[in-house]
Specification:
The protein is built from 16 helices and 21 strands. By secondary structure, the chain is an alpha+beta fold. It has three domains: about 190 residues, FAD/NAD(P)-binding domain (3-Layer(bba) Sandwich), CATH 3.50.50; about 200 residues, 2-Layer Sandwich (D-Amino Acid Oxidase, Chain A, domain 2); about 100 residues, Alpha-glycerophosphate oxidase, cap domain (Helicase, Ruva Protein, domain 3, Orthogonal Bundle). Strands 3, 4, 5, 6, 11, 12, 13, 14, 15 and 16 form a ten-stranded mixed beta sheet that branches. Strands 1, 2, 7, 8, 9, 10, 17, 18 and 19 form a nine-stranded mixed beta sheet that branches. The chain has a two-stranded antiparallel ribbon with strand order 20-21. Helix 2 packs parallel to helix 6, helix 10 packs across helix 11 and helix 11 crosses helix 15.
């Protein structure tokens, strides 16, 4: 049964129904699992304690890729699988994901044959899923493809193809797809306990974070897809559960477009400490990253360190004609990756190099690791384990050809399309309806951001946005595009939301203030 994607409606169905599958966690993994489960015909629910993609899944490098760096590690099967999933993701959500050409600049003679051979292998592994064959570029071709590259010592480059996307918008598309197929999908509902009968989990006790009310959700199987917080729920189930994660922090900075005024991206295979660095055009900006640092403590709002920022600036400066400084940074964001810790635990039902699936003695299915590119395959694996664990009738996976909400083939035809509304796909028509009712809603809210009041209104009415942070961080990408500008429109955003949600002046002020406190952490300091 299809229900409107309104929080009150989705919450009511969550409270009223019993389910076969309950997914806890509204990031890439959980949302992918919910889509897979409901599309197989299972009664499915998903709860998210904060907002969809609030944590890791909105803080990626914005790439859909096969993992060029894995070639050096001889992990060919892993690369091939990711390249297949890259093609599936782009085909099912062309408004959100599209081809992106990369250039590996050459400053030493040996880089041509070395990287060229590796990228030819990348082409071969992609096979029929290739987005374009790699090729060598002359010095002049390289400068035309990536204006802004440091010309001193440049010998040429190698072009290859991968893809990029908008991660938070992809998460929202998955949430709306699951809801359209009949799942109950709700944000700001927290799991506060697990229900058990004769030692086996049969649901969860949850709390509506807006009203404070608690209630029980019954389900045949419960899936823990809470990312970097997965061990917390595992220890609610079993206080003796050993840690299953080795989280790491990735940091990116966002610069003005002038640093890479092109539709090509730059891939630096080896930074000064051996890591990979990307310089990518994204939503009219230049995104640079990432770092990879081990962390001990996990947080909903992780922060970049001064060392992280210096590392990115220093390495970007080695390749760009204009060396970026702190003053150039529009936004800096950090995300925690829930890397699966190697384990010999017999409860691991299926393990890949990228993700692990564990089933506890009481039947809690936990997934750790993974990445956006292979979210669909990971979800398929998890649901297969869940079916076996719960003894559910086997349902056929259909997600390989399932178009996601907003599917708009026309929006995905031109890579690098500057239209900021491309990511809305077919929902652009709904924005236009709002603007026809009042043309004032079509005007940009800030000279340095493309966001309009119509997008704020649409986010509240149709995308379950419940705070200024939801709108400026994830429904639009304003916080990442320019943190200072986003802070400046926080109050106006709150007023527009307040009219839709019936907020008091105090509630408007509180939501704006909450966002400003978060956004200050995205400034370089």
């Amino acid at each position: 049964m299809t229900r409107p994607f309104e929080r009150s409606v989705q919450l009511a169905s969550l409270r009223a129904l019993d389910f076969e599958v309950l997914v806890i966690g509204g990031g890439a993994s959980g949302l992918g699992i919910a889509v897979d489960a409901v599309s197989r015909g299972y009664r499915t629910a998903l709860i998210e304690a904060h907002d969809f993609a609030k944590c890791t899944s909105s803080r990626s490098t914005k790439l859909v890729h096969g993992g060029v760096r894995y070639l050096e590690q001889m992990q060919f099967a892993l690369v091939k699988e990711a390249l297949e999933e890259r093609a599936i993701l782009c085909a099912n959500a062309p408004h959100l994901a599209h081809d992106l050409a990369f250039v590996v600049p050459k400053f030493h003679w040996w880089e041509g044959p070395f990287y060229g051979a590796g990228l030819k292998l990348y082409d071969a592994l992609a096979g029929k899923h290739s987005f374009g064959k790699s090729r060598s570029l002359s010095r002049e071709e390289t400068m035309r493809a990536i204006p802004g590259i440091r010309e001193d010592g440049l010998l040429g480059g190698i072009e290859y193809h991968d893809a990029q996307f908008d991660d938070a918008r992809m998460a929202l598309a998955l949430a709306r797809t699951a809801a359209t197929l009949g799942a109950s999908v709700v944000n700001r509902v927290r799991c506060i306990g697990l229900l058990k009968e004769e030692g086996q989990i049969n649901g969860a006790e949850v709390r509506d974070e807006e009203s404070g009310q608690t209630f029980k959700v019954r389900a045949t199987i419960v899936i823990n897809a809470t990312g970097v917080f997965a061990d917390e729920l595992r220890q609610v189930d079993d206080a003796a559960a050993k840690p299953s994660l080795e989280p790491s922090r990735g940091v990116h900075i966002v610069l003005p477009r002038r640093f890479l005024p092109a539709d090509h991206a730059i891939m630096v295979p080896h930074t000064d400490d051996g890591r990979v660095l990307f310089v990518i055009p994204w939503h009219g900006r230049t995104l640079v990253g990432t770092t990879d640092s081990e962390v001990k403590d996990v947080d909903v709002e992780p922060r970049a360190t001064a060392e992280d920022i210096e590392f990115i600036l220093r390495n970007a400066g080695r390749y760009l004609a204009e060396t970026p400084t702190h003053a150039d940074i529009l936004s800096v964001f950090a995300g925690l990756r829930p890397l699966a810790r190697p384990s010999e635990d017999k409860s691991s039902k299926r393990v890949s190099r990228e993700h692990a699936i564990e089933v506890s003695a009481s039947g809690l299915v936990t997934v750790t690791g993974g990445k956006w590119t292979t979210y669909r395959r990971m979800a398929e694996d998890v649901v297969a384990v869940a079916m076996e664990t719960a003894g559910l009738e086997v349902g056929v996976c259909t997600t390989e050809t399932l178009h996601l909400h907003g599917f708009d083939l026309e929006a995905g035809l031109e890579a690098g399309l500057p239209d900021p509304r491309r990511m809305y796909g077919s929902d652009r028509l709904e924005l236009e309806k709002i603007e026809r009712a009042d043309r004032f809603h079509a005007a940009p809210m800030h000279p340095n951001l493309p966001v309009t009041q119509s997008e704020v209104i649409f986010a509240v009415r149709s995308e379950m946005a419940r705070s200024v942070d939801d709108v400026l961080s994830r429904r639009t990408r304003s916080l990442l595009l320019d943190a200072r500008a986003a802070i400046e429109i926080a109050s106006e955003t709150a007023r527009v939301m307040g009219r839709e949600l019936g907020w008091s002046d105090a509630q408007c002020a509180a939501s704006a203030a909450e966002f400003v406190a978060i956004a200050r952490g995205y400034l370089p300091g």
